[in-house]
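[step 3/7] inverse_fold.run input=structure_tokens len=170
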């Protein structure tokens, strides 16, 4: 048995106007439409994910490691006090001692820790130290009222919520 090279034949119709050619073209186009239709499902999912990310963007997407609204609100709230240390990745702000000009015999130092990337009430922790001036000129530690720390946390959270609302409204 000898093998001879014969021209390859296909069953595809060669006449462009024939019924078989039109049917074959219709099948190819139909297959393309069906395969492209499957892509729209993925595109719709991608668009939905983008919309969800955009809704979270104001509170989540930051160049710092903590919630941007809480960070900004804390800086705004403590702006009257000298800052000793700020760590935007760790979420810690430490003020230096501050004495109110109306009460120079007392000074306060505040540390604010932002604990989460979400804007939540439990994402802020405030610690405060207070000292009073003795007659000899020495500063002595004094207790800080719990209500003072709670009030400071509330002011920071309220400011953060206001900043977020303002950003969302545009």
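[step 3/7] decode complete -> sequence:
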């Amino acid at each position: 048995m000898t093998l001879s090279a014969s021209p390859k034949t296909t069953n595809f119709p060669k006449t462009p106007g024939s019924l078989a050619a039109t049917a074959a073209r219709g099948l190819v186009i139909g297959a393309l439409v069906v395969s492209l239709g499957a892509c729209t499902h993925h595109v719709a999912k991608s668009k939905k994910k983008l919309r969800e990310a955009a809704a979270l963007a104001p509170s989540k997407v930051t160049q710092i490691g903590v919630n941007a609204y809480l960070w900004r609100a804390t800086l705004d709230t403590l702006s009257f006090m000298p800052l000793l240390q700020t760590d935007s990745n760790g979420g810690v702000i430490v003020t230096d001692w501050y004495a109110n000009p109306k009460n120079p015999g007392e000074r306060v130092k505040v540390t604010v820790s932002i604990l989460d990337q979400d804007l939540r009430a439990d994402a802020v922790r405030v610690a405060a130290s207070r000292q009073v001036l003795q007659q000899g000129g020495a500063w002595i530690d004094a207790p800080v009222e719990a209500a003072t720390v709670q009030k400071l946390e509330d002011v920071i959270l309220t400011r953060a919520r206001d900043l977020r609302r303002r950003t969302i409204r545009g």
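[step 4/7] annotate
The longest helix spans residues 19-60.
The mean pLDDT is 82.
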